[in-house]
Structures are given as C-alpha cells and as structure tokens.
Amino acid sequence: MRRVLPLLLLLCSAGQFLHADDAKPDEEGLIRTAISSYKTAFDKGDAKAVASHWTPEGEFTPPGGETIKGQAALEKSFTEYFKDSPGAKIELESVDIRLISPGVAVENGVAEVILPEQEPSVTEYSAVHVKTPAGWKLDSVTETEAIVPQSHYEQLKSLEWMIGTWVDEGDDGSVETVCKWTKNKNFMTRSFKVHIQDRVALEGTQIIGWDPDKQTIRSWLFDSEGGFGVGIWTQTENRWTVRTLQVLANGEKATGVNVITKIDDNSFTFRSLGREVDGELLPGVDEITIVRK
C-alpha cells in the first residue's frame, strides 16, 4: 500500500512529456494544468486533493497486489502512504504518452520514488487518462516491479578512464582507438584503426568485460584480417598487465604480455613483451605514449 501514492504522482506528472505530435495544443495545456495541480497536492501530502485527480471509478493495481477501486479507497491509501512516507519525491524516465482519441490518453513509463534515507524504488507503469467534464483524470493504472539489469560496472570502473578517443602518432602512420561503454556498462568496446599514410591498413574491435566465473577482467579481440584472441587482465595500482593468446588469420598461434600504465586522465603508456608466434620468439614493442584526442 505504501507504493500507491508515488505511482499515482508519476502517472499524472508524466503527462508533461506528452508528445506535441500526438495531442492538440489546447488538450496538452489542459493535461499540463492537471499535472501541476496533482504535484502540488502530492507535495503538500493532501490525500483528498490527490484522490480528486482520479475518476470516481478510478482503479489502481500495484505490483502483486489487489486492485484499489474508487476515490474513497484511493484517498485512504494516500492517507496511509503520506503518514508512513513523509517527504517522498519522484523521478520519471522513459515516459511515453499517446492521445489515442480526443478524450483518452495512454501513458507508459518508469518511475523512481525517492524517500529520505532509503533506497529508491523503481517501477514500470501503464496508465489511462480520460477527459471528463471536470478535466483530465486518471482512470486506470497498472504498476509492475521494474527489472533492474545486472551490471558489472563496479568490477570495470577502474578502467573507466579509458573511455574516449586515443591517438598514437608515428613518422609513417598512426593508430586511433575509440573506447565506449555498452548498455548497462557491462562491457567496454575499443575500436581501433591503423593508418599507414593515407590508408587504413588494419582495424578491429576489442571487447573488455568481467568474467564472473574466473573472477577477473577478460578481453576478446577481432581484427579485419580474420584474426582473433583473448586476454586476461590483472591490475597493480595504475598498471594493467594483459596476458594474450591470439589465433592469426593463417592459423598460427601468438602469445604475449601487454602492459598498460596510466600516466593521467589524458595519457598512458603501452609496451608488449614475451611475444611468440608458434613458439618463435619475436622482438618486443618498446614503450610508447598514447594520448587522448
């Protein structure tokens, strides 16, 4: 029951995001007026005024709960909520409202209810707004628990400084690397291009993520020549050591150890040692400095 009021606020408040393409300007203005009135009532903790923004037969179905019907029952729920949860605030995300007829609008979105000294609660909702002689009112609301995606950001945040565009320029060419987060910050992608004079000689993508089985940072590399590889990352203060195993386009296997050392937020060094291809030792790559573009 404690969740009733925040949801109702968000359902009405979200109307401020009504798409101009979907509603006539005068109807949008009326909905915005109702939104402002609802928010004022909620912020004051006025249960009776909040309930008045619903139709007399208005219904609300909370996550896993029984449907609450009618203004009297809603007012009772609001009263209990305001008593138990003083100072509640709400944030809206992914709000979408569509006017499906001159007198009916459907709203969907995500709400985060924030209470003092408590963890925010996140819900997804769907609401039906109807136009009545007394103005726009909430008629039906259904709320469900929002699915919070799993994220390995905490395990990867020590590499967040790599996000951005980086350049290593030499006398005969350059390497440009663009690093980005993927959705939910579960992976980082590093796309690189090797420029020799005026052409791209090689390009590829490295994906960096957390391996929950091995409890380590792992990377996967794919290049434009058809080669691929994996790496295991370990950190010592501002230095990351990456042990790599690659399969080249011709089927040969290559191993090595790459060392990345952060200098500051805008520069780092790179070197590679212990490089072998099918057991044959190759010269290492001397330390170079790479800077943010």
TrEMBL record:
Identify the residues that the record assigns to the DUF4440 domain, covering every copy.
31-138
Signal peptide limits = 1-20
Q: What is the lineage of its organism?
A: Bacteria, Pseudomonadati, Planctomycetota, Planctomycetia, Planctomycetales
Q: Which UniProt keywords apply?
A: Signal
This protein's source sits in the domain of life called Bacteria
Tell whether Manganese is among the UniProt keywords.
Answer: no
Q: Does the keyword RNA-binding apply?
A: no
Q: What is this protein called?
A: SnoaL-like domain protein
Q: Which organism is it from?
A: Gimesia chilikensis
